[in-house]
Amino acid sequence: MNRIFLFVLLMLFSTANIAQDANYWSSAYGTGGFMVPGATIVKNGDSGVLFYNPALLAFNTKNASNISGNIYNFQRTRFNDGAGLGLSLKANTTNILPVIASNTIYVKLKKPITVAYALMSTPVMRFQASQRRDGMINVLGDEYSPGNEFFVGQYVHSNATDETTGLLAVGKSISPKLAAGISFAVTYRRQEFHHNLSLSALINDNNTYDQRLVSIQEYYLVHSRVYNLGIKAGLSYELSPKHHLGLLVSLPNIHLSGKGDLIMEYTVNNLRMDNDEVFLIASSKQTKIDSRWKTPVSIAGGYAYSYGGGQLYFSAEYFARIKEYNVLSPRNEFFVRPDTGLIKRFSSSMMQMKSIHKSILNLSVGASFPIKQSIQGYASLRTDFNYSDEPNFKDEDGYRSNTATWNLYHMQLGTNFRKRRFNLRAGVLLSYGRISKSEQMVNFDEPTDDGYLEGIVKNISASRFSAGLMLAYIHNF
Question: Which of 97, 117, 240, 349 lies at a C-alpha separation of 20 to 30 Å from 175?
């Protein structure tokens, strides 16, 4: 039955949930997700689950299987005036799916150990939005195109990222008060990034039958696939029956392999710059190029106080910075057609996808409390600060890999129903984030030929809201 149960759970993992691509604590299964089974780094009374701190597995002395996930989840992401005044970029999504399935095995040796393995679908990002402006606007210089021109601007941005992780963890008691554990996780990260900008204006030359077109097209599409190995080591220490401590160290991931494909095209047609007409085609397709994704070293600590059937929980995790690096590293090829190599600006650096992480500290607080003899209540709050550090990129070449730029704050409320052979936990997950100064992706306001048919990019506000229903089932065999 154990094998059949886990096989059914694994078959459910066909898609990924949605969260943020520049926040470490978006997943409810982690250091600060106190309500989710096993999402803690100190002893909290859960049994039969895969703990985020593998040292806590030492306290599991029974075989069990667990499935946890959002049975319903709604997300709304909005960049106010993202493409110009009144032209917001927004995306609403809903999902129904699990995020973790695990099996815990107590091995009765002379010195017993507990082993757990799991398959996880980690939420990252799924955003897709488009915007358009068309009308009569004075875009081109009056010396060659007097009056207003017919202008069309279109923009599409999408970023879809998900991770699937296979994990093996071991926990062992060292003494009655101290336990240690280690986990190994192989993660497959997939990302599809799409940027498509189209700008066009018709020249007013008093010839209604053969008007010339000024246009700029920018197209960028990336598919990236990366395999990484992650290692975590943890300790759990019992100061007393009421006071519990936990420590977890996560090493920077180890790059196993990674390949990506990209296609990019940048064209300029009939644009007037300094009394010259500009025509340009810069186009390239590269396949099987190097791709990687980095995570930093992090140190997490936690404390829990047990009282009268409940518990107070506090945790924090520090993430070190990561210097600028390329998520996708194109081969060093000029892509202007013909390949004269005369226009240095259009080199491989224009096609790179890059990332940079600043150091951050996340905090969480949680509480559990008895409601009835077999019913336990849960509540928790946690920060989820954004680690993107765009101002410190060395230059503006290329594209940043993340879409999200805001800090998030998560709240969880729920209950656990306990029976002899199983636990059923249900709750509400709420998240909100906002930033008042996020740079526009494009700007269709006041486009000019001096600005390559765009207006001046400005700072705007952006926000994200998420609400979900969580359901977790733990079966003890």
Answer: 117
Is there a contact between 76 and 465 (Cβ–Cβ < 8 Å)?
A: yes
With contact defined as beta carbons under 8 Å apart, do 94 and 209 qualify?
Answer: no
Strand (E) or helix (H) holding 10: helix 2-11
**Tokens standing for 427?**
């709750």
Cβ partners under 8 Å of residue 366, min gap 6: 32, 34, 35, 312, 313, 314, 378, 379, 380, 381, 412
Q: What is the pTM of this model?
A: 0.89
Question: CA angle, corner 282, sides to 279 and 287, nearest 5?
Answer: 165
CA 219/CA 156 separation, integer angstroms: 10
Domain boundaries, position 50? 2-476
Give exposure, 161-187, as e/b (b: 16+ Cβ within 10 Å).
Answer: bbbebebebbbbbeeeeebbbbbebbb
Number of compact structural domains in the chain: 1
By the 8 A CB rule, do 105 and 114 touch? yes
DSSP letter, residue 307: E
Better-predicted residue by pLDDT, 317 or 281? 317
Q: Beta strand pairing status for 399-400 and 353-357? A: parallel
Question: Which residues neighbour 411 within 8 Å (Cβ) at sequence distance 6 or greater?
Answer: 379, 380, 381, 429, 430, 431
Contacts of 6 (CB under 8 A, 6+ apart): 65, 101, 103
State the Cα–Cα distance between residues 183 and 172, nearest whole angstrom: 12
Q: What share of the chain is helix, strand, coil (3-state, %, to 5)?
A: 5, 60, 35
Q: What secondary structure does DSSP assign to 335-381, as a single string?
A: -BSS-----TTSSGGGG-EEEEE--EEEEEEEEEEEEETTEEEEEEE
For residues 334 and 355, give the distance between their C-alpha atoms in angstroms, rounded to a whole number. 23
For the stretch 102-152, pLDDT in tens is 899 999 888 899 999 999 887 788 899 999 999 999 999 888 888 899 999
